Amino acid sequence: MLSSHEFKAGLRDGGDEACAKQETIGINSGHDAPFWRGLAWFTGLFSRRRFSPQSGVIYSSPFLSSLISTKENKIRENQAFDRRTNIMNCKIIAALLLLASDSHLRAQILDIYHFKGTVYIQTSPSPAVTPRYPDVYYFANLLDADPAKALEYSPFMVFTPSTSPTNGEFVMTETSTYSFSFNSPYYACKTNFDADYPNGLYNYVTTYSDPNNNNPKSDNVLVQTPANDLYSTNLPAFSPDCWTAMQNVDPAADFNLSWNNYTQMTGSDYAYTFVSAYDSQTVEFKFNFNGPSDVTSTTIPAGSLDYGRTYIVELFFSNRVTPDTTNEDGSFVSVTVGFDDITDATLVTIPPPLQISQAGGCVTLTWPSMATNYMLQTIHQLGGSDYWHDVTNSPTVVGSVNSLNLPAKHTQAFFRLTPL
Questions:
Q1: Which residues contact 303 (CB under 8 A, 6 or more apart)?
Q2: Residues 124/127/131/137 CA torsion (nearest 10 deg)
Q3: Which of 34, 302, 385, 398 is the right S-S partner for 79, CB 3.0 to 4.6 Å?
Q4: DSSP-derived secondary structure for 378-398
Q5: What is the rounded CA–CA span in Å between residue 299 and residue 32?
Q6: CA 83 to CA 276: how far, in whole Å?
Q7: In angstroms, what CA-CA distances link 415 with 246, 292, 379, 389?
Q8: Kind of pairing, strands 179-183 and 137-145?
Q9: In 3-state terms, the chain is what percent helix, strand and coil (to 5)?
C-alpha cells in the first residue's frame, strides 16, 4: 500500500481526467521554505481516485478513508512560518468575528488566507532594493476548519484552471489544532512561479464526518483570485538614515524605523504595512507591527532586542482583496487574497558595554542587566598560559544595571562579557 505522503496526482478539466505524474515539491535553498510532499489521491467534486505507480493508471477508490487514516495523512513536518506571523494576527481577529455568527457552524471551512509574495533585499542606505535571488517568489495559504466536525483527512487545495499542466491538488499541513497551511518552495523565475501558481479560480476542499450521523460530507469553497497581480508599484525600502542606524543599534534604547510610503493598488479592497524582526540564527520573532499603507514609521521599544545579535527586519507592503465566498451550504467564509512585496534588511545590535572602576581594594564592574545572554569572565594575564574564567559571583541589580564588587587581590586583572 502506498504511503499517504508519497505521491500526488494532477488534475485536468475540472476533475474528469488525471495526469499520472509523480511530483515532489522541495526546498530551493536554505531559507525558510519548508519541504512538502503531496498525497496520492485525485478528486472530483465528490469522488476520490488513487494513482497506482505500478500500473500507471488511476482507479476509483470509494473507501479512501479506510486507505488513508486521519493521522496518517496529516503531514507533521516542522515549518518556519516566520513570514506569516503578521497574517496569523489578522487570522485570529477574523476567527473571533466569525464566532459571533451562528452561520459558520453549518460548514467545515471557516476562513482562508491566500497569498503570493515577492522578496527583495536592501544592502545599502540607497532605497534601491533587488530581488533576493534565488529565493524570490513564493505562495502560501492558511485555512481554519471547524473543530466541531471530525476531519476524514487533511484539507487540500485544487487549482481549477484546466489550461495549466501543473493543475493538481496540494495537501495542507495542520500547524495547530484545526488550522492548516501550505507553503510553496521559493522560485527564482516569475514565469515559472506564475505557471505553477496562476491567478484564477482555486477550490479548497475538506471531507469530514457529519456530527449528526457520522456520514462523510465534503465542503468545497471556490476562491476567485484577481486576474492580474496587485503588487505595489512602490517597492518597500527603509530610509537611508534608518538603514545606516540599523547597523549599530543599542537595544536598551527605543529604535525608530522609517520607510517609504505606497498607495493602495486599484482593484484591491485595502492595503496594510507590516514590519517584523527576527533573530537570524534562532528565527525567534522579537518585534511585530502592522498599520495602514500611509504609515511610514514605527518604534522598536527598548528591551525588545538582545545585545550582540543580528536580526532580519522585514518590511511588507500588502495589497488585499476580500472576495465574497460561501461554503456549499451558502454559509459565509472569510477569505483574504493578498499580494505581498517584502524587503529584508539586516539590523545589528551592539555588544553590552562593561564599565570598570576601582576604589581602594575593591573593583566595581557594571553592565546592563538585560544582557542575560552574556557571561562575565576574567583573566590575570593576556597572551600567556592563563585562560578566561567565568566569574560566578552574583551581581546586584540596581535599576537596569548589574553591579558587582570584587576584591582587588591581583596586581592586574582583565574582564570581558562573552556570549553564552
A1: 251, 252, 370
A2: 130
A3: 34
A4: EESSTTSS---EE--SPPEEE
A5: 26
A6: 8
A7: 28, 48, 7, 9
A8: antiparallel
A9: 10, 45, 45
pLDDT, tens only, 8-25: 222 222 332 222 222 222
pLDDT, tens digit (0-9, with 9 covering 90-100), for 121-171: 999 999 888 999 999 999 999 999 988 877 877 888 887 653 444 456 788
Instruction: Give, in degrees to the nearest 5, the angle at Cα 172 between 168 and 176.
Output: 175
pLDDT band at 187 (very low <50, low <70, confident <90, very high): very high
The grid coordinates listed for 226 are 484577481
Residue showing cell 562575565: 376
Of the candidates 170, 199, 232, 206, the one whose C-alpha atom is nearest the C-alpha of residue 34 is: 170
CA separation for the pair 310, 126 (Å, rounded): 20
- In the three-class reduction of DSSP (H, G, I as helix; E, B as strand; rest coil), residue 233 is classed as coil
pTM of the full structure: 0.72
Query: How many residues are present in the chain?
Result: 420
User: CA quadruple 185, 186, 188, 192: dihedral positive or negative?
Assistant: positive
